[in-house]
Amino acid sequence: MNGAVIPLQAAAGDCSNAPVLRERGQREVFCGLTGIVWLHRKIQDAFFLVVGSRTCAHLIQSAAGVMIFAEPRFATAIIDERDLAGLADAQDELDRVVTRLLERRSDIRMLFLVGSCPSEVIKLDLSRAAARLSQRFAPQVRVLNYSGSGIETTFTQGEDACLAALVPGLPALADGAEASLVVVGALADIVEDQFSRLFAQIGVPRVAFLPARLSSAMPAVGPGTHFILAQPFLADTARALEARGARRVAAPFPLGAEGTTRWFEAAAAAFGIAAAKVAEVTTAPRQRAQAALARQRIALEGKSVFFFPDSQLEIPLARFLVRELGMQLTEVGTPYLHREHMADELAWLPAGTSLSEGQHVDKQLDRCRAARPDIVICGLGLANPLEAEGLTTKWAIELVFSPIHGYEQAGDLAELFARPLRRRQLLAA
After folding, report:
1. Are 45 and 110 in contact (CB under 8 A)?
2. Looking at residue 88, what is its pLDDT?
3. Taking the alpha carbons of 296, 299, 303, 307 in that order, is the dihedral positive or negative?
4. In terms of Cα–Cα distance, which of 413, 378, 406, 399 is closest to 296?
5. How far is the C-alpha of 256 from the C-alpha of 235, rounded, in Å?
6. pTM above 0.90?
7. How far apart are CA 169 and CA 218, in angstroms?
8. Apex 162 CA angle, 344 and 44, nearest 5
9. Reduced to 3 states, what is the DSSP secondary structure of residue 322?
10. What digits encode the pLDDT tens for the residues 235-291?
11. Which helix (H) or strand (E) segment is 147 a member of?
C-alpha cells in the first residue's frame, strides 16, 4: 500500500526492533551511474563504458566536473535513433566502439560495460556482450558488466552492482592459506592507507581491500576469508562474497571516533585479538578525532536534523550525529533498511527515533516542513526549494564524494554538517 503507516512506538532502549514507516511513492534520487565518479578514480587501470543516452553522458560529466581536455577513465556509448529503431545491430555497434576504445587506450586492463535505463528498455544484453568481448581481448583486458540504471534503485547501488560483478572472478583462496580480512567498499586512498597502517599495528593478518587500486591486485576469497563492510550499501556484494564461502564480520560502520573504534575491535576479534590491543594502537588517533569533534560540537549540539532517504548512509550518520555531537533526530529516512547489516547501528540509536524506509517525496516533505528541523540532509533536487522556504540543507551526495571514514576524517565529517548552519547564521546576521 502506498505510504502505509506503521505506528512509530519507542523501542526499549534502542531501535533494534523499532517499527519502521515504509514509504512507496514518488522518488527523488540520482541513478547508479553516479558511482562511476568515485569508482573510476579508485580502480586505476579500469574503464567504465556506459551504454546509454546523451543524458547519461551529461550526468556523469556534470557530476565528475571533467574538463573537455581531460582524459578520464569513463565514457558513454550513445544509443541513438538508429539503435532504438532497430536499424543497426546494437551488439555489432558495441563491438566496434569497444575495439576503438581499446586500440586507443592500451592502459585499460579491466573494462566495465555499464547498463543504463535506455539500454535496459531496449533489452540490450550486456552480459552476453561482456562474455564475448572478454574472450576476444583476453588476457590483456577483462570485460565485465553491471547495471547503473536508476529504475527502482538508489545511486549508491551502482557501487554495489560493480563490486558484486567483480566477486565471481576474484582469485580463490588457496587451500590451507592463512585466514585473511577483506575490507569491502571503495574508500579514498588516504583512508585506505590509514586503515592499513592501523590493521598492521593491531596485528590483523593479510588485510586486502575490495576494490583494489589495480585490477591485478583484487583479493583472493574463500572459506578462510573474513570480510568487513566499510560502506552500508553493499548488500549484493556481501551476498556474493558469502556465496564464495567468506564470512561477514558484524560491526558498526567506521564513521566518527566511536564507530571507527568498534569497527576495528570487531575486525580484531575475528582473529582472536583483544580489544585492549585495539585501544592501545588507536589511542592517539582516537584522541585527535575526539578533539576535532569537540570543536564542531559547539555548533551542532542540540540542533535537530531530518534525513531524506538518499544514499543508505543515513542510519550510520544519524548514530554519529546523535551520540558524538549531541544532535536531535527528527526523522531518519533511508532508501533500504538492511536490518542484519544495520543491527549494531540500530542498537545505538535512541529509543523512539522515527525511522522510514523507501520514499514518498510529497509526504516526507510535509513531515519535514511540519518539523522545521535546524538542518535537512537531502538530494540536490530538494535542497534549493527547501532553502527557499527558509530551511538549512546539506547535499547528501557530498557525504558520499568526500573522505569521511576513520579517525582522521571525523572532524571533517562533523564540519560538513556544521558548515551549512554557520552559513545560515552569517546570512541572517
Report:
1. yes
2. 55
3. negative
4. 413
5. 22
6. yes
7. 9
8. 110
9. helix
10. 999 999 999 999 999 999 999 999 999 999 999 999 999 999 999 999 999 999 999
11. strand 142-147
Distance linking the first and last C-alpha atoms of the chain: 46
**What is the CB-side half-sphere exposure of residue 289 using CA atoms within 13 A?**
24
Contact 310, 377 (CB under 8 A): yes
- Answer for the pair 173, 222: CB distance below 8 angstroms, yes or no: yes
CA distance 419 to 269: 37
Residues paired with 245 in a beta bridge: none
DSSP state string for 256-304: HHHHHHHHHHHHHHTTT--HHHHHHHHHHHHHHHHHHHHHHHHHHTT-E
Phi, psi of 65 (to 5 degrees): 65, 35
Write out the three cell numbers for 45: 587501470
The secondary structure of residue 337, as a DSSP letter, is -
C-alpha cell at 167: 566477486
Which amino acid makes up residue 140?
Q
DSSP-derived 3-state class of residue 106: coil
Rounded distance, CA 211 to CA 188, Å? Answer: 11
- Residue 58: CB atoms within 10 Å: 11
Contact 378, 308 (CB under 8 A): yes
For the chain, give the number of residues.
429
Of 202, 321, 208, nearest to 271 by C-alpha is 202
